Protein 1
Amino acid sequence: MSDKKVLTTNNGAPIADNQNSRTAGPQGPILIDDFQLIEKLAHFNRENIPERRVHAKGSGAHGTFTVTNDISKYSYASLFANVGKQTPIFARFSLVGGERGSSDTARDPRGFSVKFYTDQGNWDIVGNNTPVFFIRDPLKFPDFIHTQKRDPKTNLKDPQMMWDFWSLSPESLHQVTILFSDRGIPDGYRHMHGYGSHTYSLINKDGVRTWVKWHFRTEQGIKNIHPKKATEIAGTNPDSAQEDLFKAIEQGDYPKWRVYIQVMTEEQADNHPENPFDVTKVWSQKQFPLIEVGVMELNRNPENYFAEVEQSAFEPSNIVPGTGLSPDKMLQGRIFAYADAHRYRIGTNYQQLPINAPKCPVHNYQRDGAMRFYTPDNAPNYEPNSIDSAPKQQPQYAEPPMHVPAGTMDRHDHRVDGDYYSQPRALFNLMQSEQKQLLINNIIGSMKNVNHDIQIRQLKHFYKVHPDYGTGIAKGLGIDIDLIKN
């Protein structure tokens, strides 16, 4: 018997001729009974699944997470059980607003998501390369993303939409300042930090909850691309970040990130002057210093991009015992939105795909649906039941009650605090003079064709952050400074 692989149909039957369709005579019409032709054409029509509504273009790789510091006083999660413990991971990096064909050098936040295949289930951190976000209420998320996509009439990207929304949403100032700074265009994915961005929680064996912020700090060093160079790369190698990550791993130059947490007790949160669950703001690292947890290393490229990167599904609702969520409004919205996006885009059984499937046993009462291929043998599909061998709930894994501020259930205005300026001001003051000028030039380039009234509205916000910030942009746009001082 030959060692050559036999070409087959999807049902495994050998194919005798893959060059010619079945026809009625040499020049006759094609016959509908050519199931091989029908199968190839029908499958080809369905080879693309809908692209992600956000984070459409991305790159991914497999690797490991290794514990380097004991954090058992904060969490009893098995992946943190002891120093040296290693957990397999899959990480995906992405552009937030662009389509799958976007350039990797676009000015855009980068998604930074990690799936930990722990021995008690999959745990996902779904974050970005920035510690904050543009909005703090998920009700505004579809509106915001619409401004980052294409105008429904022209089908063009439109700075007018972006700045109109941002100028009416001053909570965006912190993220806007980061986006238009030198860190707005990272040099590939290896040279940027990652953040969980939201406030999450950890729970220890005594049932004590601690609020945490996750930080992934690149061991390769921060590198960014100047806008002019980014434009050149976009025209010559729009997949530069994908190529850089793949080649580095292929050559054994495995990228690493050192993983840290900031921690805040529930009592500290209750007395914190700012809302600790506001994703538009950071926690002071002087007050809440970084605590090392471990090291993430990427050391294996996907064998098939579609199967492992395009079909990978991350969701903040994937938590494991010893980890938890928080009252962060944006996080609460994403808990629903991400899993629902996967159900639409990939199918209701997306968690059974190899890239998403847990490495530990799965037992539940979900059944059927498109592409279902795993169902426990001889098991009921209802619960409670009286069958001893059927899966049962385990009360010892219950989370402690989560304290939330008392108050009325209503649509509370999330813009009542008024402090949109102190944290962007602190960031602006940290910048070197050349960084400030680059930030100002980048914003001028983006705002130059925006309506005058929107320019004035946004410039007033920049001026409140810092007079030099607003004045520098106003001069570049040819706008009288006196118009933005009040």
Protein 2
Amino acid sequence: MTNSLRPNGDRRAPLPPAQSSADGVPSPRSPQSPQKKQNGKQRDAFFDNAKYLAIVLVAMGHAWEPLKGDSRILEAAYQVVYAFHMPAFIIISGYFSRSFDMRPDRLKRLITGVAVPYIIFETAYPLFKRWIDNDPHQDISLLDPWYLTWFLCALFIWRMTTPIWKMARWPLPLALGLAMLATVSPEIGDDLDLQRVLQFLPFFVLGLVMKPEHFHMVRRRSVRIASVPVFAAALAFSWWAVPRMNTAWFYHRDSAQELGAPWWTGPVMVLAMFGCSLVLTACFFAWVPRRHMWFTALGAGTLYGYLLHGFLVKAGDYQGWFEPTWMHQPLGEIAVTVAAAAVVTVLCTKPVQRVFRFAMEPKMAWAFKRDAAELARERQSAERSERDREREREKVNA
């Protein structure tokens, strides 16, 4: 129907519909994945499942850290998990950032969903350490991300640069080049954890350039079957490499010189680890369920689990929870693993989200001016509702 046929002579072109999601961009839709509506938005079960399973691996890896020194097998598993769990999470973050632009509503969502939680938790973590570790000298610095907050800082920078990557002709090679240069530049320092921002950047850019069909490719039966020997080979290689390789390479937070290696090993390790991480991430995605599972809804709360579980891990570290001898036995390591998975699962649930939403997803309407497009949409909606009511009254009178 053309505008000329609209009642009341309304000839204005309709405004584009408002879009909102947990990360400020529309949720991607996969034709092969069942869809669930949550808060009026379409969600893809595959991505929610992947985010939940990735955050469980993050929590398990952090729980293994105080124990891995006594077990070569656990150290090998730790290295394999660290090779792909954050890359998988970052690729998904990049994929969901494909439509990000400088539109006011998306910038507001970036501030309230990333920048504000960064400020809150970058303040809360040092205060927590002062209290539980009796350390009055622990400083609060918004320029030096503490423990888990580096990801929020990195995500803010990556997303703000998204329009640039979308303009670039060869974004992924350019991102890899920046990561390689970062590993030979110890002068970068610790401000905003720029080493991690740059060294993990290729995974975010990869997510930006990926399409739904790329995820369909890794979810084929043949890839699932091949992923089993690939993971077995990765574990075997990692077991061999434990005494021969510095685990700090997997953290991507230091230059080659800071790790005591020749400068040229930095670019080589960037390419080698990018390739290994990409293969293991593809194997991980191959085994992520595509259908709605009991934990699918928890995928919407992974940021809660990520930021909150750090308090428990650090409390255990400061209070000596990991020191009992039995925890360093195989059964103790299994118990710690199960406990970490259970705790982070609870932290992703709706009740926890309701309690901590003030810090993770604050509305902050008081801080922003109303967007003109949003006001116009509301005005058009009100006019449309009034016209509908007028038609109903005319039908009744007729």
